[in-house]
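Researcher: Quick sanity check before group meeting.
Model: Go ahead. Protein one:
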Amino acid sequence: MPENKPPSPGRYIDPLVDFAFKKIFGSEPNKDLLIAFLNEVFRGSKVIADLTYDKNEHPGELKDEGAAIFDLHCTGQHGEKFLIEVQRGRQGNFKERALFYTSRVISGLAPKGKREEWAYNLSEVYLVALLEDFTLAIDDSPKYLHDICLCNRDTGKVFYDKLGYIYLELNKFVKEEAELQTGLDKWLYVLKNMSRMDKLPIYLRKSIFEKLFNIAEYTNLTKEERNMYDSSQKYRWDNKNVLDYAVNTAVSEAEHKNTIKIATEFKKLGVPPADIAKATGLSIQEIEKL
């Protein structure tokens, strides 16, 4: 398997590495960063005024890179209460996992008794997922934001508006600096590119981004935090190396099978083995065995 060593840390840590994602967005002192990001994600459909982190944590340990999950109790600008689960997704069966997690959140809302009095008065529940290196295959469009809800299949009319899934496919977000228009554009660009930057760009000269870049500066980490970040980054790159190798191997095997199929058809047509070898790249010995 070819080596794929992680790069040396730059001035800023990579927000998409688990440790960095949790440090930046997962603590009470930094909740203003998460509020600012989520308000851009919801694009006005919900406006978060405050949030608290649920005590039921889902630790994303190094052995399960990509498991950063936050359960959030949110208060809207009009005092309304709702729940948001934020995930960094890299796992397979992600749609199923998202349904499982939101189902768990919803079932946890039910009181142990007096359900008739409660009358299934559910809070709004949303899941926001950052998908770093895979797509959901929802459609063939280049759109990187998918806002999913329960609706009537025939009419498209919303059936239930208190459950939603917002997926952000970062590998489809390919805008350059000059193309950034919205606040969400700027956040996604920073998440993908901050680890390669050497200073805070002029177009991000706002207090919220100044705080973000200050927290993400590698030299501002403690020695223990630097070790944790380096380990998390190495694990992430090791996993990527394994995945890339598996994909390349699968592609090579598929191409070889297709070549064998073509050579077999040539042989049935009576094409000389030497000519088949020139056309397919197979050896004459391989062709004779077909």
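Researcher: Fine. The other one?
Model: Protein two, sequence then structure:
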Amino acid sequence: MDIYFKMDVIVVMTKQTGKTEGNWKFPKAFWTANTVELFERAAYYAVFIAITLYLTNVVGFNDIWAAWIGGIFSAGLYFLPPFTGALADKMGFRKAILLAFSLLTTGYFALGALPYKAIVIPAIFILMFGGSFIKSIITGTVAKTTNEQSRARAYSIFYGIVNVGAFTGKTIAYPLRINLGLTSINFFAASMTLIALIAVFFFYKNVDTNTEGKKIKEVWQSFLKVATNLRLVVLIFIITGFWIIQHQLYATMPKYVLRMVGKDASPEWIANVNPFVVMSLVVFITHVMRKVKAITSMSIGMLLMPLSAATMALSSVLIPLTGESISIFGFFSMHPITVTLIAGIAIQGVAECFISPRYLEFFSLQAPKGEEGLYLGFSHLHSFLASLLGFGISGYLLTIYCPDPATLSAVQKTTAYQHAHYIWYYFTGIGFISALALFIFNKIPPKAV
């Protein structure tokens, strides 16, 4: 699920109440921005679901290095948008989005054509900067091409398109990997962003940014203000525990399932359980919890996350009972590891529905009066930290409990994976500690922190 966009969109959709007037007609820039966002999200998620696999199996990095590189890539996409957004305001959206898609196309093509360590790392940084521009420009375009009456409707369109792109990218990545290899995913992504670049060139007219925007120096000062607010920093670290577990969809799960089940397993499709569950339930759960305090809703989600991780470890219980195949209502069979991963990811999706719509609301309440907007610009620092820590931890745990088969002898392979499910116990512990920390945080008066 695309967390960066999802929380902003849900807040807009849930806070804007009452009747709205108007229709579904929006300027060409709005539709162009949403269309290219579909291509960009498909490209990103196709690559991201396989990023650590590619870095290890194709480029030759070990699990630890692959994890840190993947984590830095993801972290940059959450940290940089406020800064690149300020730059985009200064450049003008049209120039900025053309630059962004040029960088993305170059980066993805380089990953596919030149899978060498000396090329891949610079290409990752090119993608990181290009992607951070997209995050700020597209959401900015939606905001600037709508008004108060049409904004909720516009963001509902945007929200749906973002997730269709993410779902599609991961779905396509599986047959590409199986039939053409991991490298082909990068060429697919490059083709998607190239199409987006062409569409922007011909159809995207500049959106006026003269009335808004901050200088990069001002953005940095805002960041320092947030970083020195102890209560907010504590909250960010607590919520980071939640997203560390969620990030294992990309950091741990792909390698885990392929090494445990076999090369024909489909981590790409397994990961799609998350957006399917969220898209199906988020409106309902948000509606049910609308009169409940934000901290209460978030606490429910935080308690579900360790259950999610623990469920993923249950294959060790199932395999002795069922063998390596479980019949699903007589229609098809699944490996017990696949079953437990799907169940755990589904619980994770439900947990997101309780946390994501209310996090920004609760975060803003911790900010000084009148400075909520300034602080909300850096509300995604938890995902920055979760990317670094979640991927970093994953690399070490995979090396210990579920190592790369290419590094093992025939004898070692017979025993190397017998405790692979222990990985999920670590994340269960992280989730439990985070849930407990949120409970304590809520009991401490704001002036005490």
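Researcher: One line on it for the slide.
Model: The CA atoms of residues 7 and 356 lie 5 Å apart.
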